[in-house]
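Hi everyone, sorry if this is the wrong subforum. Our group has a chain we'd like a structural model of before ordering constructs, and none of us has done structure prediction before. Sequence below.
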Amino acid sequence: MSSTSHPSRLYGLDTLRALAIVLVFMNHYLLFVSEGGAFGFWGEIGWTGVDLFFALSGYLIGNQIFAALRSEHGFSLSRFYARRFLRTLPNFYVVLALYYVWPAFRGDSALLPLWKFLTFTQNINLTPGTAFSHAWSLCVEEQFYVLLPAVALLIAACRKSLLWAWLAVAASLIVGMLVRAYLWDEYVQVPRGGLGYYKYIYYASWCRFDELVAGVALALLKNYHPTAWARLTSHGNRTLLAGIAGTALMFYVFLTDHYGYAVTVFGYPALAASFTLLLVAALSPASALYRLRVPGAASLALWSYAIYLLHKQLCILLRPVLQDLGYGPDGAPAILVSVAVSILTGWLLYRVVETPFMRLRARYVPANHA
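Answer:
Right subforum, don't worry. Here is the predicted structure as tokens:
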């Protein structure tokens, strides 16, 4: 893990990752802690922070795989999995242990069987409101991490592999839309409504791969179409404006008709496309997003995974304590304390658990493209 001052850091990506965790925090605070007013518009739309994380992960993982495939050493599947699991599992297992070993930490929420978390299948047919429910997005990413490199190697072994790769990207997006259309007709257009939407569409891997695939497509373009990539990144500020405009439009669309048929079917790939434009801007040297160093963004980006794992339940536990002290959940003191505790505990988890494993990874499992 690089320090925040490392010269190779991409500050635009740090800014986007920091924005993603801030959005998620605001949404979770609004849903599980607030009495209805915290963060307003940003709290309502903050769930899209997960989608931004997906786009970032798709690009970063895709870039690692494609760069390794093009290198003289080639791509090692075992090394990739070892590096991924050393990055994601230690923090996850520590927080998971808190839920199972310390009942007071999970409160009154029902806890799913342990095997669903250990196999990263907890998101399948997940009922909202269960303990550690926000781990659903980690399940989506882990499933993707397992599938993507295997699929990439399979396609790389084919003739005209680049054509097949782009066909696979297009097919993934089309299948995602078709699956959401079918599931919406089956489960949302009935009295079950919102529950069916979340249980069978929102949490489902096959309905949420769009953002990850969009990021992979961007990595594919960067690694195998250098002329097109150079042309695309030469207009960074235009791309940034287009990404902001597209994101604003999609925020409006989702706020207006989140559970509607058309938004469910087409909204997620459209949101992914908007976030991908922001990613292009973050990777374009001429872009303001690339050059701008937002104070604290690099640190938040570095600690974002640990913060994500802990923040929701900590804020839920803090609410009654702060209320007993006379601080309502929508007041500035309660929000500031919740933010501070979330960042502090995230930093602690990062330092005590994540950092040692990252050192082990750097020492014993070198990168594929090294």
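For your construct planning: The chain is about 75% helix and 0% strand. Residues 1-7 have pLDDT under 50 and may be disordered.
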